[in-house]
Design goal:
By secondary structure, this protein is α+β, with helices and mostly antiparallel strands. It has helices spanning about 30-45, 55-60; strands at about 10, 15-20, 70-75, 75-80.
Length: about 80
């Protein structure tokens, strides 16, 4: 079924823990995707290219993927998922 966005998630990587990150993407897989993105950013920071925590939080909160698991109607539920590969 359709899994609505979570109000917030905690994201733990081998290098950091960030709590109460807002994610507005549909899907129960989104917290794991966010953790992968944050882990990649942690590696960039370790290599000398830090991204501020506020920018990470803003990016995860504001990311939008039109036509990728996009809820376009609720009665009945209509989801577009046309932008995959």
């Amino acid at each position: 079924g359709l899994h609505p966005p979570l109000a917030s998630v905690d994201v733990a990587t081998p290098r950091s823990v960030r709590t109460q990150i807002r994610l507005d993407l549909l899907g129960r897989h989104q917290p794991a995707n966010a953790a992968c993105a944050v882990a990649a950013l942690d590696l960039l920071a370790a290599g000398g290219l830090p991204v501020p925590d506020a920018a990470i939080r803003q990016g995860l909160r504001e990311v939008r993927w039109p036509a990728r698991v996009e809820l376009v109607a609720t009665a009945p539920a209509v989801v577009l998922d046309t932008a995959h590969n």
